[in-house]
């Protein structure tokens, strides 16, 4: 009984150490992001005509923290993924350790692809649609706080959702999730994803469709990769039992 309690304590201590490593990495990347905020800012507003307005000194600080924070999150993805992998590694088979190790760079690449998809496709099309419908009604002037809130609220969720297939692949490979469960949960998942899509987009039908449909496609891709991983897992278990 005492040995079991010590084992639990050891696991909690290891978890605490790995969380600390993630926090330290995030703080380091945040510092780097704050240093390059001006360059990132200029890149993000290069297509705007005219400068953004800041209504107070706090808006400038908010811009630095927001841009630096998103940069830090993106760069911390591999660190977070590795720490999770290292924590669960003792419970994995040798082949599972090697295969799941490849998920770490995949998570980072897909996160960056999600950022690119949101920034180059979703954001400009939604912004153009909103500008076009209001062109004859009002003169649109952007404040920095409103502009970047709108930008990141659209783009960052897509970055996280692009990682969903890899996460599902990992959970399937270790036996936590199955494609049958994902198919059975499809209606509920669609409902949740549509709510998320409408929540992160402006309150109009076109924007809701532009944000919700890609999320549904990502879910279907997750079912596909889960099916592949599930078949491989079944074959491996059958081979080990022989």
TrEMBL record:
Repressor is among the record's keywords: no
Cell compartment(s), UniProt: Cell membrane; Membrane
Topology with respect to the bilayer: Multi-pass membrane protein
Keyword Cell membrane: yes
Chief location category: membrane
Keyword field: Cell membrane, Membrane, Protein transport, Translocation, Transmembrane, Transmembrane helix, Transport
InterPro entries given in the database record: TatC
Membrane-spanning ranges: 20-41, 61-88, 100-122, 150-176, 188-206, 212-230
NCBIfam families the UniProt entry points to: tatC
Record's function text: Part of the twin-arginine translocation (Tat) system that transports large folded proteins containing a characteristic twin-arginine motif in their signal peptide across membranes.
Entry's family note: Belongs to the TatC family.
Quaternary structure and interacting proteins, as annotated: Forms a complex with TatA.
Descriptive protein name: Sec-independent protein translocase protein TatC
Species annotation: Gottfriedia luciferensis
């Amino acid at each position: 009984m005492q040995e079991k309690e010590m084992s639990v304590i050891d696991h909690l201590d290891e978890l605490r150490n790995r969380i600390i490593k993630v926090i330290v990495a995030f703080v380091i990347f945040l510092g780097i992001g704050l240093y390059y905020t001006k360059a990132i800012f200029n890149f993000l507003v290069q297509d705007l005509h005219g400068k953004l307005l800041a209504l107070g000194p706090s808006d400038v600080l908010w811009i630095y923290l927001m841009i630096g924070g998103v940069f830090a999150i993106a760069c911390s993805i591999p660190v977070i993924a590795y720490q999770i992998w290292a924590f669960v590694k003792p419970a994995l088979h040798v082949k599972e350790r090697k295969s799941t190790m490849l998920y770490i760079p995949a998570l980072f690449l897909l996160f960056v692809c999600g950022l690119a998809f949101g920034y180059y496709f979703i954001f400009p099309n939604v912004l153009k649609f909103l500008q076009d419908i209001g062109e004859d009604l009002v003169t649109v002037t952007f404040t920095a706080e409103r502009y970047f809130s709108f930008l990141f609220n659209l783009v960052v969720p897509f970055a996280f959702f692009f990682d969903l297939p890899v996460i599902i692949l990992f959970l399937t490979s270790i036996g936590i999730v199955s494609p049958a469960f994902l198919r059975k949960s499809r209606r509920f998942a669609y409902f949740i994803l549509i709510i998320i899509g409408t929540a992160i987009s402006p309150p109009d039908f076109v924007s809701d469709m532009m944000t919700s449909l890609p999320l549904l496609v990502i879910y279907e891709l997750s079912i596909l990769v889960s099916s592949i991983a599930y078949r491989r897992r079944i074959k491996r278990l059958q081979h080990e039992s022989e």
